Amino acid sequence: MSKDLLTTLEKLRPTDSLSAELWPENVQVATRIRIIADENNIGTPRVPRRRVGAVALVAMLCAAGMVGCAAATAMMPKPFTDMYSGWQTMPGTNGGIDPSTAERVGSIPGPDGTVFSVFVAHGADGWGCVAPVFETSSETDKVGPSKFISLGHGCRSNDDLYGADSFGGGAGYEAGSHEATYDAGAGGAVRAELHTADGQIYPTILAEDRFYGWIPLSLTFPRPTLVGYAADGTVVGTR
Prior knowledge:
Elements: H1 5-12, H2 17-22, H3 25-40, H4 49-64, H5 69-73, H6 78-83, E1 103-109, E2 114-122, E3 128-136, E4 148-150, E5 154-156, E6 172-175, E7 179-185, E8 191-195, E9 201-203, E10 205-207, E11 210-216, E12 225-229, E13 235-238
Antiparallel strand pairs: 1-2, 2-3, 3-4, 3-5, 6-7, 7-11, 8-9, 8-12, 10-11, 12-13
């Protein structure tokens, strides 16, 4: 008996009109295609149906917001969660804030080839914690950094505006060995730049209604000016 599937099909072809009616030409063609495909794929591993169902289920839960899908594919590095572990016992936060849920909300060029990034984590009742850091550029495509320099952090509730309702309100400043970091209320601005006395411009990151940035310590005098802009590019305030 021939092992060629097409030859076998030819021998099985109906010869009378009744059989041809029961097995029309379009069905024959579809059957040939299926058999040829099976013959070509002999030995090809197949993905178990249970696995396909599991993937579909996870995708459905991700779309519905029922599981933390980002955390399922990557985890915040332990050095980061250790650094900000105090968020979990922060007084008044109604259960604390988990640092492993922090997200990088923005990054700008930092000093000496580093990157200045701002991470934000949210808890219950509108509480949020913010952590600006210097990290290496090679880690900006990861969930969080393993090697970084912490530039302070702060947690507050939505009720605590801390000057965020006015541009430049509640400004904070901290000087390091070679750089200074700062934050200031956004007010009605959606973008801000720090203009130095010698004409240089440094960008900022908007996070939780505040602008965060850095500047070389050597350029902090004469005092630079923070300029805020509306969405249409008009200046809404300076500080």
